[in-house]
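Milestone 3.1: sequence recovery, worked example.
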């Protein structure tokens, strides 16, 4: 079932993500999240090998090119994906910016202030905090 789902996702990636999003140089949030999810699978047998190393590299390069425009949660996804891809210096650069966007208060501790348009999935403050802890671990 997982392999079939990845085959469907790859078709969507080819039909829409590459041509529309990457072609128009927009919507890096979706590309970053897709590549993060792919990086969770230990080898290509889980995905049926439909996403090649070149596909993953292109997605990672595209996301990294836009890392400064990412919200802190997406920067966490990107940093972990970069680390898993062996790009340690780039991962450190991106994650340091996540930590730079945090605030520290004596009573509240370290936290991320609510983002503009907090209703978007990648702007959730609690999710950002939880994921930053995951990346740190």
């Amino acid at each position: 079932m997982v392999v079939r789902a990845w085959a469907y996702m790859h078709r969507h990636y080819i039909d829409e993500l590459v041509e529309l999003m990457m072609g128009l140089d927009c919507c890096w949030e979706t590309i970053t999240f897709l590549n993060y999810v792919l990086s969770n699978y230990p080898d290509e047998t889980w995905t049926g090998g439909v996403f090649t190393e070149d596909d993953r590299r292109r997605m990672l390069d595209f996301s990294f090119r836009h890392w400064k425009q990412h919200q802190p949660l997406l920067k966490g996804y990107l940093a972990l994906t970069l680390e898993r891809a062996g790009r340690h210096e780039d991962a450190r650069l991106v994650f340091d910016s996540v930590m730079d966007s945090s605030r520290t208060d004596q009573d509240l501790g370290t936290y991320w202030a609510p983002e503009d348009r907090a209703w978007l999935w990648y702007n959730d403050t609690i999710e950002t905090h939880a994921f930053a802890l995951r990346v740190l671990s």
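The helical segments are 2-22, 28-39, 53-65, 72-84, 88-100, 125-136. Residues 2-22 form the longest helix (21 residues).
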